[in-house]
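Input record, target 12 of the design panel.
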């Protein structure tokens, strides 16, 4: 049995960043509009420039290995559904952020709801991966295959992080 330690570590890093979304939602009443604008702008940037590119790398490298290990597309389909919802909520958060300066109460509530929603879905995505998907893969891979898989994930992640494809909000 192999361990995908780098991948689990990366999930923990991204998970810590995800917690800040919930913190912003919980602390909105104690924030000025400028503070909130800055935090939400940072969250949109994290989602667009960090989380979604990483999830795309997983789709490119991890999902094919998962389809072989699971002998079915079902886990991949579940993860893709989560990805679509995270992406939709990231766009909704950016749209809500743009309406904040108008100061309308409905806009503030929508941002709070979207922050909580994207936090919940992204958390679910990583929970499913960490508790279902990675154990399935780890039981199917030998240590050398696991190392090769993580090397490929790191290589593609590095390439994507230098690409301008993910620099558009």
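The sequence produced for target 12 reads:
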């Amino acid at each position: 049995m192999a361990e995908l330690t780098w991948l689990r570590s990366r999930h923990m890093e991204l998970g810590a960043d995800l917690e800040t979304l919930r913190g912003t939602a919980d602390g909105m009443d104690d924030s000025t509009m400028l503070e909130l604008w800055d935090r939400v702008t940072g969250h949109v940037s994290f989602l667009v420039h960090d989380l979604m590119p990483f999830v795309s790398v997983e789709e490119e490298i991890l999902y094919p290995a998962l389809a072989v290990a699971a002998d079915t597309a079902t886990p991949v389909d579940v993860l893709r559904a989560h990805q679509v919802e995270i992406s939709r909520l990231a766009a909704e958060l950016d749209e809500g952020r743009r309406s904040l300066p108008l100061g309308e109460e409905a806009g503030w509530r929508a941002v709070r709801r979207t922050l909580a929603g994207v936090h919940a879905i992204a958390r679910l995505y990583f929970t499913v991966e960490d508790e279902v998907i990675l154990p399935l893969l780890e039981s199917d891979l030998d240590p050398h295959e696991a190392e090769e898989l993580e090397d490929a994930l790191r290589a593609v992640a590095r390439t994507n992080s230098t690409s301008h494809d993910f620099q558009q909000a």
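Residues 33-70 form the longest helix (38 residues).
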